[in-house]
């Protein structure tokens, strides 16, 4: 029995429950970045897991130190949504960057130009432009570069709303901070698939988040 929340009613009565519940149902990933909500989730985990199970959903606590709500395949009362292909691609490349210990010295903070370069190196500029713009015919380089940058910005905003990253500005330079939830994107190549192969599969729309598809959020909020 939990000392802070002896019963489910005690957990639901906490002022943090409505906030945490709303975020989880929206597909947001939580970690220690938000200390108060994370502490509540840890303290009430047993009760919350049983609570969401009644809705046909599972409260997942990943070994890397983040949590999210996963609707069941069928019969769940929460809707299951999928990330857009461009979000999957950007998320997967960000996961590769998160797994690179070189970035630890900057506490996983990267400028957005580094992200753009990593995307181009992973799948090639042509494939990247096609995925992000939805355009198969060639355009002039300036227009293509602008479309890529804008599309990546929109994808980053959607991933930030789901708790995969934080967007920051340092000395007027747009940056992203890579959070632990990005490890969800790493599943396609943890069993031996090459990192670049996984990125190329994401560009083709083949790679998903396995059985743990994240909520893509509302289209109305897609603006960067």
UniProtKB/TrEMBL annotation:
InterPro entries: MksE, MukE_C, MukE_N
Coiled-coil region(s): none
Protein's UniProt name: Condensin subunit MukE
Naturally occurring in which organism (per UniProt): Plasticicumulans lactativorans
Pfam families found in the cross-reference section: MksE
């Amino acid at each position: 029995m939990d000392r802070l929340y002896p019963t489910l009613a005690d957990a639901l009565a906490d002022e943090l429950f409505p906030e945490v519940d709303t975020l989880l149902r929206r597909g947001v990933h939580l970690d220690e970045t938000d200390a108060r909500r994370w502490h509540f989730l840890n303290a009430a985990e047993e009760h919350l897991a049983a609570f969401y199970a009644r809705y046909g959903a599972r409260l997942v606590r990943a070994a890397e130190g983040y949590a999210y709500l996963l609707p069941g395949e069928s019969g769940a009362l929460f809707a299951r949504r999928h990330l857009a292909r461009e979000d999957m691609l950007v998320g997967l490349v960000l996961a590769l960057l998160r797994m690179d210990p070189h970035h630890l010295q900057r506490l996983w903070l990267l400028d957005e130009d580094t992200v753009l370069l990593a995307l181009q190196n992973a799948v090639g500029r042509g494939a990247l432009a096609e995925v992000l713009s939805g355009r198969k015919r060639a355009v002039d380089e300036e227009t293509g570069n602008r479309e890529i940058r804008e599309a990546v910005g929109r994808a980053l905003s959607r991933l930030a709303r789901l708790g995969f990253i934080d967007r920051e500005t340092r000395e007027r330079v747009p940056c992203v901070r890579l959070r632990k939830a990005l490890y969800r994107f790493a599943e396609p190549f943890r069993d031996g698939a090459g990192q670049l192969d996984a990125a190329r599969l994401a560009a083709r729309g083949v790679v998903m988040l396995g059985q743990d598809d994240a909520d893509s959020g509302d289209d109305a909020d897609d603006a960067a």
